[in-house]
Specification:
This protein has 152 residues and is of the alpha/beta class. Helix content is 47%, strand content 24%. The chain has six helices and seven strands.
Amino acid sequence: MDATSILCSVAEALHHANLEAVMIGNAAAAIQGAPVTTMDIDFCIKDNENNIKKLSKVANELEAELTDFYPFFQIQNPDNELYLDFLTRVIGIDSFESLLEKSTTLSFDGIFSLKIASLEDIIKSKTAAGNDKDLAVLPILKKTLELRNEKQ
């Protein structure tokens, strides 16, 4: 599977489960032009029991396994190169609502869509996390943001 077909399948599964999620991390940064790579796709969801139940529906539709490490969840299907992480909290971000408010929408054929965290929020989160892998990518993300802002 390629990235576009994976993202479209994920968007469709989230839609069918009626689960509101915001893509965060390197995958969201790459969609916004940052020259970064990742093997998984990270999402933030609102922390409530109903949304956590909806993750099972998403996993079933994607023919994948759901693992619960509350407040962190994984949906994986290695045969389809599908690795999704769902967090109920993102370090450095005040709330799911603030993340959602600043997000943009990536649409697939006008039918399904994904919310994508702002590059500013991705940078804020990686700065707050402070681990080596996040700190290593920060200069690239900041430069991408700077170049994007210059074009506007």
